[in-house]
Amino acid sequence: MAGAPINKIFGGALLVAGTCIGAGMLALPVATAAAGFGPSFFAFVFCWLMMILSAFLMLEVSLWYPIDTNLITMAKSTLGRPGEIIAWCAYVLFLYALMTAYTAGAAGIIANALAKIGINESWGIWIVVAIFATIVYFGAQWVDWANRIMMMGLIGAYILLTINIIPNVSKEMLGGGNAKYLWTTAPLLVTSFGFHLLIPTLKNYLSSDVKALRWSILLGSLLPLIVYLIWEVLIIGVIPVKGESGLVAILHAEHFTGKQAVIELTQLLNDILKNEHVTLFARIFGLCALLTSFIGVSLGLFDFFADGFLIKKTLKGRFSLAGLTFLPPVLMAMFYPRFITALHYAGFFAAILLVIFPALMVWWGRYRLQIAQGYRVAGGKPVIVITLLFGLGVIVLEILHRLNQLPTPLAEMHLFN
What we know:
The protein has 16 helices and no strands. The chain is an all-alpha fold. The protein has a single domain, classed as Amino acid/polyamine transporter I (Up-down Bundle).
């Protein structure tokens, strides 16, 4: 790993890992429980490999351009005006879907706390937005400090959760399930490994050092894979899949929002383990996961609109940017707060933006525009086609899921009672 210092490679890896690990992690064991740990393990590894492949394709394209070149410019340069428009729309819808999920989740947890002290729950969403819109309004330095504090809480709570839960994991509970229920989880898995929009920034951070970039992407994405698999073991190995209070019932409850992703899981853990410390650690972990994701995505969207609409960050401009960033997700979270559904829609747009677009840009750049400079992902056309087919497959699966054409445990609920 000669070239960039080890500490910069490590820093780059942490940036990748931090971008991946977030609120979506709360939904993973709930969404994959019916398939069982074994099939889910292979699905996680396969999806990780495909997302690594698309990330390296994104890296190849990024290295064709000068520092500070973003995805929209890359899409326009390789795929023309249609590519720019589609990328722009997919980018905004992707981040709005994530913001909707995280807004609903964080607001739900705070609302639950407010209800306990006699304050109307409806204030929860406005408290979240007021606090974090203010932080984002004042810029990246405020976001950095807020994120550090929440990341410390997230890491500490995760370690304590693991220590307390792992002795209670049942091997028998990990062994059940049916792999056919994994088809509906593809968009969620794609979202969980979606760090690709960070690559242009990472290129600047590591001064376009190809070896350092590849190691940062590989190691940084491997850490979330390990964390997700441990989280799967902790939840699926302790909380029953079947029954009225099982993971399948939680997944298909009409009221399953981000609040339930944390509160119901923590309540079930407390009922099973009789350990109030686990409940506390789980709620801290869940809230920190939601808020770190929320603040990171909101800053990215804030800056994206500033660049895309050429809005200067004056007093008036910042208010306009805050409105564009926070108002649409708040309205969606108020009227349709389904946590996993929002993440599924995010996965749909992520498949376009993070998988299909890198493959198309590399194909067009290599074989039509004859760009042959610098780093090139090995494997030629077959690798690009495989990546493209994976992205299209995720989109097709999500469409079939919305049309109720895929097997779900809800449709066969008699098997889970």
